[in-house]
Every structure is written in structure tokens, then in C-alpha cells.
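User: Fold this, then the next.

Assistant: Folding the first:
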Amino acid sequence: MASALGFTIKSGWACAVVLDGPAKSPEVVASLRIELSDPRDAHGRQPYHAAAGTAKKPGPQLDKLIASIEAFGRKSVDAFIRDQETAGRRFAGAGIVVGSLIDPAQIANDHIRIHALEGQLFRSIVKHAADRRQLASFIWRERDLYGVAAKELKRPELELRRTVAGFGRRITGPWRAEHKAASVAAWLVIAK
């Protein structure tokens, strides 16, 4: 039976879901919030923000903050994957859901650019964790996810949405949009 990881990236954290296959009827076996930045660090969630929508100036202070976020996030994601592997799971790969795939350098508006930089940073933490474990990883934009899944899984989008909503009945804890998106990403990985 195949297992896959699904992650929905947020600012400073990710929703992580584990699905076990088969692709025709996968099941959620774990759902967790993973901190990608230290919650005790007030600057860790939005490291490129200075104040009132302005960007922090590049330099050693920002470099040090980014390095500490990457180290913290790497440990969090690695610990989650390691715990799941210790429980006997062998992963086919990881699906990563993001808000945007736009290159931040192409964005003229400073405030939008710093949000894009933060999205890129947190996405790269999860992607690099998968790469280090030699897991195939796939990135999908959240607004495209169900359309891609309907095509790849050969199911109507409404049926997919109902099925994914039902996954939440099998777990303890919240089952919000980010959990559902992470589940769809993991399902797509199982189906590859």
C-alpha cells in the first residue's frame, strides 16, 4: 500500500497530512500542524516584513533570521517525516500546496513581493526536507488543485470535494481547507 505526504504551506507553518493508498480509496492516517518558524520569535512568521507593509533591508540581520527559520523548519519537517517512517510508512512522495508560484523578483509592489518571498521561503523548507529524504515532490497552486485532481484522478470535482470532506470524519481534530488541500496533494502523489 502506498503512503504519501501532503503539505499546505502557510506563513510560518504548514498543515501536514499523511494518506495511505490505494489511489481508488485512500485514507487519512495523520494530520498535524507543523511549525516552520519558531512561534516564540515574533519575526519568524513574516521575516521579510519590517513595518506597515514595508520590506526589511537586506543584510546580516535578515540573513541570520532566514537561516534560523530554515534550521527550525528543517528540524520540524524532518521530525514529522521521521515519526511517520518509524510508524512503518514508506512514502511515494510529497505533494506541496502553495498560494502562488510567481517569482517574487517579477512583482513590482513591495508588499506583495515580500509575501511572495515568505511563501517561497516556507515552501522551500518543505521541498528541501523531501529532497533530503529522496522523496519525489510536486508543487501545486491551491486555486488549481481540485481542477488538476479531477483530471488526474478521473473524478468529477464535486465528488472529490465530498470525498475529501469525508476524510475529516476519520481523524481527531480540525479538518479545514488547508487539511483538505494537503489531502488532495497527497492523493495526487499516491496516484502517480
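Now the next one, as you asked:
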Amino acid sequence: MPKTMQIAWVGLFVLGASMAHAQESIPSLPYENGSVEEGATKAATCIACHGPNGNSSVPEWPNLAGQNAVYTATQLRMFRSRVRNNPVMAPLAANLSDKDIDDLAVYFEAQTPAGLEADPSYWQDGQALYQAGDVEREIPACVACHGPAGVGNPGAGYPALRAQHSVYTVKQLNDYASSVRYQGAAEQGAGSAPVNAHMMTTVAERLTPEDIRNLASYIQGLR
């Protein structure tokens, strides 16, 4: 298939998935009332895991610097409600008010990712899959939702991926594939999970362990 047709197919795949949930996939923006200054104070408890200014030095814990506020606010609310029932984050988020979440979300969005390097053994294969997908396996290009530089799409609820630890990315893709990332939604009703979760689960199920490794390496080196 010519590359232009491949790109068009990828765009249609994502557009169709997005339009199916057009109303639900555009999140509300409660974080607009957040304060970067107040968030800086409240983020002091986050430093132990996520590092100064949201740049984590531990690969198992995600970088939060530069993450769009709508995504961070949404995830913190899901930790709080235990839809995303992480044993570390759920208890911490349980004590956060809506204002706390809004402040933290805008604070981390205002920070600059420090940047990491991609593994030279894998990033080129990861780049090919990220940018073009795989038509034969019905895997859309990551670029369609997360952008060429991995900055995401706040309006659609798609997170920034750039400079994220590859170890963390591998775990999240595996969690999507095994349907455990939002496992709390099964107890609270299907509607409690984000609408993008189904799309990510479908994509992740089609990825091989090598695909996941390669993508994670490429994403780690994105600027």
C-alpha cells in the first residue's frame, strides 16, 4: 500500500473511533481554575516519586512535567475514585480535593520535561510504528492522537508521551492489553472508564512485546 494511502487509512481509523464518542471524548476543563503557584506548594509531596518539577529519576514512576492539565486532572480523579486502582496513587489521591487536583494539574503542565535518550537498538523500529502504524495488523499510527513530537491532544484527552520513561510506557501498554489499567471500572460500571481506554486496549492487544519495547524506546527519546 502506498504511504499516502497508509496515512489516510490511519487517519480514518482514529477519526472514526473519535467520532463514535464525540461528546464524551471531549473532557470538561475543571483545571482551568487551578493555580500554578498553589500547585507548586502542593506538589511538594509528589517530589519523592515524580522528582523535582515532575521529572522523575525512577523509571517505574512517570514524568509529569509538561503533561497536559486535562489529562493529569482526569487521571487524579480516577485514582481518587479507584477506577484506576493503583495501590500507591489511589490512597494519596483519596485526600485530594477538586481544587488540589486542579492546582497540581496546571502546575505540572507548566513544567519542562528534562528529556531522555532512546535506546539506539530499538528506536528506529519504534519510530516506524509510531509514525505510520501497521495496516496489515490494523494498528493505527500513534502520531494521529499523540502528535509528531508526542505532545498529545488535550481537547481529546490524549496525553503527552514525549520523554516518558520507557519502563513506565511498557508497563502501561501491557496494562492496557490485559485490561487492568482501569480495572476499578468493572466494579463501578463501564461508563466510569475514560472513552479512550477502549481504543487503547484494542491497539495494545495487537502489539507484540517487541512492538511495545520499540515504541517505548522511541517515545523516551521524543522532544
